[in-house]
Specification:
Elements: H1 3-20, E1 26-31, E2 36-43, E3 52-61, E4 68-76, E5 79-87, H2 88-91, E6 99-108, E7 116-126, E8 131-141
């Protein structure tokens, strides 16, 4: 094989790997709530085991929020691996005025978290139990060490 052929093969392999490994996290709403969810993202991407990951959820609210409940759960290859439930106002500054906001949630990952695809679900309810938002964020933990 010539040097030119080697470069072509290497370029095609790199393109195939990049196609299998998206540059950003994928998101979708998982239920209709009071907030209009307009986006979701993860930093850094890809995520690395043993480091902090930051999840961003972009929402528009029609009314102010003074409190509520935030639930988070994470699946790895279809298996439930993490969940938490707590005061929404510990995760976001309350009261949250009506309008457009980027809600930020931080989590330190264990060093032993296996690489591969994960699904994070973020769901918030107000004090009356009414769903504010639900978003699924698909993300990956990188294969290479940090």
């Amino acid at each position: 094989m010539t040097a030119a052929n080697n470069k072509v093969v290497a370029t095609l392999l790199l393109a195939a790997l990049l196609a299998l490994h998206p540059a950003t996290a994928d998101w979708r709403t998982c239920d209709e709530g009071e907030f209009d969810v307009t986006g979701g993202d993860v930093e850094p991407y890809p995520v690395r085991a043993g480091e902090e990951v930051v999840f961003h959820v972009n929402v528009t609210s029609g009314a102010p929020i003074t409190g509520g409940l935030l639930e988070v759960w994470v699946d790895y290859l279809g298996f439930h691996v993490y969940s938490s439930q707590g005061d929404l106002c510990e995760a976001v500054a309350c009261p949250l005025a009506a309008g457009t906001h980027t809600l930020t949630f931080r989590q330190s990952l264990p060093k032993v978290a296996p690489p591969g695809p994960y699904l994070g679900v973020f769901q918030a309810r107000n004090q009356g139990g009414i769903l504010l938002f639900c978003i699924d964020i698909n993300f990956r933990i990188a294969v290479w060490p940090a």
